[in-house]
Design goal:
about 300 residues, alpha/beta, 3-stranded antiparallel beta sheet, 8 helices, binds guanosine-5'-diphosphate, binds magnesium ion
């Protein structure tokens, strides 16, 4: 039936505004050098955003530290504009002494919150503030098949306090499916034991369907992924894949790895929630702490 007052057109109005403005999505990758961070980013977003040699385009946003590099890229799909910021963090945990190696990463995340807060306090309230806050931190786990390293626990704990953390098992083609399953269970038990709170969170406002979706994601964590910047031929067709001793890994085949699940999660089901959770939970926590400190 036709609406009387007409406010039901608000969804179209919002959509139009949002589409025009586009979405800003900021993803950070954290983990040891060589775990396939750059490769995964390229696999996820198809084009060669970062080459795995670590060459990145000149910085677009002001940098606080020389170790962390951001790369901006605009992707357009069916008229929807996604501005993707990828923050690469080379070198974490590579040294003999890793004490404090997480500081620049955590600082970077907090600096973005701080910059946003400054703008929020000074700019006209309704003006659009560019959002550089990290919406998702992909944490790369070494596929040892054993346990997490103590330093991983420390870093995960620090990160989970300030950002949505999504753990992934890097280069999971080096594990058999059985090893992978056991490794996952072990990791999740360790995370739970150490009270590390991972994304997704079950907010009150979620409906039954969303809660179930979150449950399915939690059952799958950490995503066991494989990345590749190359195509290999499977059944006469080129697919993103890798050749190894056992044969060909098709990155997009769910029987081989969970890359597709990660991609669906990041871009199809949880993009907006990652952005909202960042604003409503992580940023809010930061903001109220800052404002309290100001009052004292
Ligand atoms: P980064 O230092 O974490 O950014 O790692 P890179 O993306 O530069 O990858 C390091 C090396 O690992 C490269 O030779 C990649 O081809 C390789 N690599 C990346 N992803 C995978 C993967 O999923 N499986 C395997 N076996 N090798 C990978
Ligand atoms: Mg890299």
């Amino acid at each position: 039936a036709a609406s009387y007052v007409g406010f039901d057109s608000i969804t179209r109005q919002i959509e139009h505004k949002l589409l025009k403005r586009g979405f800003q999505f900021n993803v950070m990758v954290v983990g040891q050098t060589g775990l396939g961070k750059s490769t995964l980013i390229n696999t996820l977003f198809a084009s060669h955003l970062i080459d795995s040699k670590g060459r990145v385009e000149p910085d677009v946003a002001p940098r606080q530290t020389t170790e962390i590099s951001a790369l901006s890229h605009v992707i357009v799909e069916n008229g929807v504009r996604l501005k993707l910021n990828i923050i690469d963090t080379p070198g974490y945990g590579d040294n003999v002494n890793n004490e404090g190696c997480w500081d620049p990463i955590v600082k970077y995340i907090k600096d973005q919150h701080s910059a946003y807060l400054r703008k929020e306090l000074t700019a006209m309230r309704d003006r659009f503030i560019p959002d550089t806050r990290i919406h998702c931190c992909l944490f790369f786990i070494n596929p040892t098949g054993h346990t997490l390293k103590p330093i991983d626990i420390v870093v995960l704990k620090k990160l989970a306090e300030v950002v949505n953390v999504v753990p992934v098992i890097a280069k999971s083609d080096s594990l058999t499916l059985e090893e992978r399953l056991i490794f996952k269970q072990r990791i999740m038990a360790e995370l739970q034991y150490n009270q590390i709170r991972l994304y997704p969170f079950d907010a009150d406002e979620l409906d039954e369907e969303e809660l179930q979706l979150n449950e399915r994601i939690r059952d799958m964590l950490p995503f066991a992924i494989v990345g590749s910047e190359r195509n290999v031929i499977v059944d006469g067709k080129p697919v993103r894949g890798r050749k190894n001793r056992w044969g060909v890994i098709n990155v997009e085949d769910e029987r081989h790895c969970e890359f597709v699940y990660l991609r669906n999660f990041l871009t199809r089901t949880h993009l907006q929630d990652l952005i909202e959770t960042t604003a409503q939970i992580h940023y809010e926590t930061f903001r109220s702490k800052q404002l309290l400190a100001l009052k004292e």
